[in-house]
Amino acid sequence: MAAPRAVLLLSGKRKSGKDFVAEELRSRLGPDTCAVLRLSGPLKERFAKEHGLDFQRLLDASAYKETYRQDMIRWGEEKRRTDPGFFCRTAVEGAAQPVWV
């Protein structure tokens, strides 16, 4: 994986339009140039694999996800404590485009 030429970080409150802006940037720059990287999906996928859970069900707003929310939080805090770069490495895994959002 080559280092990106540009990294844009979007932050904001829930429902503030972060995903919309990220997708708009990818649309304008093109998918060969711009990768939209997210933390939530890759981390939930890792958590599901490690705990034998249904990854797809962790992605929706279901009671299933709520059942495991506190476990996911504790798992994430432990990962960050033992390996501060874990979240970033997980998010950028496989990204080859020169612009990361």
From TrEMBL:
Superkingdom of source: Eukaryota
MF GO annotations: ATP binding; phosphomevalonate kinase activity
Pathway the protein acts in: Isoprenoid biosynthesis; isopentenyl diphosphate biosynthesis via mevalonate pathway; isopentenyl diphosphate from (R)-mevalonate: step 2/3
GO CC terms of this entry: cytosol
UniProt key word Transferase: yes
Intracellular or extracellular location(s): Cytoplasm, Cytosol
Top-level class of the enzyme under EC nomenclature: transferase
Predominant location category: cytoplasm
Pfam families in the cross-refs: P-mevalo_kinase
EC number: 2.7.4.2
UniProt keyword list: ATP-binding, Cholesterol biosynthesis, Cholesterol metabolism, Cytoplasm, Kinase, Lipid biosynthesis, Lipid metabolism, Nucleotide-binding, Steroid biosynthesis, Steroid metabolism, Sterol biosynthesis, Sterol metabolism, Transferase
GO BP annotations listed: cholesterol biosynthetic process; isopentenyl diphosphate biosynthetic process, mevalonate pathway
Protein name: Phosphomevalonate kinase
Organism: Podilymbus podiceps (Pied-billed grebe)
Gene: Pmvk
